[in-house]
Amino acid sequence: MCKIRDNGIILKKKVYAIGLLSGGLDSMLAVKLLLEQGIEVTGISFMTPFFGPKMANKAAEKLGIELIVKDITERHLEIVKNPPHGYGKTMNPCIDCHALMVNIAGQIMDEQGVDFIFTGEVLNERPMSQNRRSLDVVAEMSGYKEYLVRPLSAKLLEQTKPEKEGLLNRGLLMDIQGRSRKLQFELAAKYGIEEYPNPAGGCLLTDKNFSLRLKDLFQHNPDPVLRDLNLLKVGRHIRLNEKSKLIVGRNEQENREIEKSFSAADILLSAEHIPGPVCLLLGEKLESLVERAAHVCAAYSDAEEGQSCQIRLKKNQFEEEIKVIAAKADKQ
């Protein structure tokens, strides 16, 4: 802890840090290591259609720290569309995403007079986004390299300005590296952290099936709105042509969510008198696709193959019914 002299009296200067809090074990441990040194810690979490602050809120409450939540949808979506450093295994632009988050934390640091930024990153824990080069790129791109501390791997990395200035004790930071989480589990036991989420969870961009849907959306609609992105989380998605697709509810909850998402430009379909999905037809020239969409709706209902089905259509304030014959569908 840094000391200053005021009128001949030695005083301790309170040190403040702001850090990326995902709610995962690594970020929680980073907070604990700093709190142990008497540093005042604030967490920051981010909101987009692909992830949110739910786990971070729980973690902040357990840790007893303040949490700032920032909606970064607009800036983040531009990165997802065209990441300068590419994607991971799916549609996850982790390097550019982390740099953006650190940059935003750095801006708050400047505005509020905070001393430094921290993250829970661990050297070589993730081969693509947390190798030495990637950590350096994130630091450089963020614009706050000198002020970015990674408490769990600090002893293996270049000394930062707050360490040099004695704002925190480098000797009390860690030298963890690699994919084994043995040391993290030991620290968790030491600090009494018993509940924490799976390290692979939290971001839909790391999910293979969601990423395939997102890639398809970008191919057919380069400028999606928020509703387009949120609908990717619901139902089966069946591409009917270059400009249109059908979303088929898989259960009662998804049926309700699809109904809530229905807009004046869409067509809503559901099977009458037979349990089945609610389907959302969206895109262009939808009238020409109604019969095909109705057959899909019937196929995913509980109707027997060859059974006649009444499919109710709703567009704007108008409703009508058409009759189709149910066929088999892959209901996996």
Description:
The protein is of the alpha/beta class. It folds into two domains: 201 residues, HUPs (Rossmann fold); 92 residues, no CATH class. Helix content is 34%, strand content 20%. Strands 8-9-11-10-12-13 form a six-stranded antiparallel sheet, with helices on both faces. Strands 5-4-3-6-7 form a five-stranded parallel sheet, with helices on both faces. The chain has a two-stranded antiparallel ribbon with strand order 1-2. α1 crosses α7 and α4 packs across α5. The radius of gyration is 25 Å and the shape is elongated. About 2% of the residues have low confidence.
In short:
Helices cover 34% and strands 20% of the residues. By secondary structure, the chain is of the alpha/beta class. α1 (25-35) crosses α7 (182-191).
CATH topology of the largest domain: Rossmann fold
Number of strands: 13
> What separation lies between the terminal Cα atoms?
58 Å
Shape verdict: elongated
% residues in beta strands: 15-25%
Q: Biggest sheet, strands in spatial order?
A: 8-9-11-10-12-13
Label the structural class.
Answer: alpha/beta
Spell out the helices and strands N to C.
EEEHEHEHHEHEHHHHEEHEEHEE
Report the top-level CATH class of the largest domain: Alpha Beta
Give the fraction of residues assigned to helices. 25-40%
Quickly give the CATH architecture of the largest domain. Answer: 3-Layer(aba) Sandwich
Notable characteristics:
332 residues; alpha/beta; Rossmann fold; six-stranded antiparallel β-sheet; five-stranded parallel β-sheet; 11 helices
